[in-house]
């Protein structure tokens, strides 16, 4: 299926590996020119379609510079909000600075970058804002207190924004990963193994047993859903959270 994306431009955050990198490649395959942003640009291969840009989402100056670079290039039609996850730990006992630091890195830069780039989409009456969330928004994950809490706030922001710009042809959606096989999930599995004294293989096996599909997802399965949400065909999908979780989330 031709997704109608040839010649469009995208900015993908958290693009150097994992879910972000898979989205970069899925969009590039559809003929999109992709600005791929992360801290480590040396691991990204620049091509005609993929333009690595260095950004540290924890540094407001770096975020401002990224916005300026993308605007100077004419802005984008598609924005993929993504980035790293916070440290594991309970909701109970996190001090104010832990919450503030996580919010500063996970939420505020996404809000600022979206605000700066959405104007062009509204003017041209076509745009796509796609934000990577977590299954923890719909079914909080034990020992990921910061992630569950802050991603809930991001979900509220995304849904509110969707209604504000729907009439201007801009869709705003979230994609909800369950357990997709990336560095982040491997790190969390290793952390759980250390905490519980189980082997990593046992942690992975009990994790797979919770997933009706019986396996972790592949990053390219996630990237394909992002490309569809960016497509012209997805023009009437907005304010949605699309699960890519092999059935992990138990609620309707
Ligand atoms: N994989 C899953 O199944 C799953 C499930 C639930 C939620 N999630 C969430 O979805 C997001 C992406 O997941 P993932 O598995 O792809 O994670 P990942 O493997 O840890 O990749 C995170 C990406 O974000 C970038 N990043 C991290 N900190 C950054 C910073 N300060 N500034 C700029 N870029 C930064 C990293 O690049 P650099 O290090 O080069 O900057 C990398 O490209 C994460 O927030 C994760 O917690 C993932």
What does this entry look like structurally?
With 252 residues, the chain is an alpha/beta fold. The protein has one domain (9-244): 3-Layer(aba) Sandwich (Rossmann fold), CATH 3.40.50.720. It contains eight helices and seven strands; from the N terminus they run βαββαβααβαβαααβ. The chain has a seven-stranded parallel β-sheet, with helices on both faces. The chain starts with 8 loop residues before the first strand and ends in an 8-residue tail after the last strand. The model has no long low-confidence stretch (mean pLDDT 97). The protein binds NADP nicotinamide-adenine-dinucleotide phosphate. NADP nicotinamide-adenine-dinucleotide phosphate binds next to α1 and α6.
């Amino acid at each position: 299926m031709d997704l109608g994306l040839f010649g469009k431009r995208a900015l993908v955050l958290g693009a150097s590996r994992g879910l972000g990198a898979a989205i970069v490649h899925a969009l590039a395959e559809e003929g999109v020119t992709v600005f791929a942003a992360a801290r480590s640009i040396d691991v990204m291969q620049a091509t005609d379609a993929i333009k690595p840009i260095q950004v540290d989402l924890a540094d407001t100056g770096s975020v401002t510079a990224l916005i300026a670079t993308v605007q100077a290039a004419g802005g984008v039609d598609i924005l993929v909000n993504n980035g790293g996850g916070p440290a594991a730990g309970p909701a109970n006992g996190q001090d104010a600075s832990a919450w503030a630091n996580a919010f500063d890195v996970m939420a505020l830069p996404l809000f600022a970058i979206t605000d700066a780039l959405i104007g062009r989409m509204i003017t041209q009456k076509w745009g796509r804002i796609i934000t990577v969330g977590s299954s923890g928004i719909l079914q909080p994950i034990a020992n990921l207190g910061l992630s569950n809490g802050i991603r809930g706030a991001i979900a509220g922001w995304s849904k509110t924004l969707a209604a504000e710009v729907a009439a201007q042809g801009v869709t705003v959606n979230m994609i909800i990963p369950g357990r997709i096989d990336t560095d982040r999930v491997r790190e969390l599995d290793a952390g759980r193994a250390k905490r519980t004294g189980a082997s990593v293989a046992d942690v992975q096996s009990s994790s797979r047993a919770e997933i009706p599909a019986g396996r972790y997802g592949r990053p390219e399965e996630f990237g394909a859903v992002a490309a569809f949400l960016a497509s012209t065909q997805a023009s009437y999908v907005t304010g949605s959270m699309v699960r890519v979780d092999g059935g992990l989330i138990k609620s309707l």
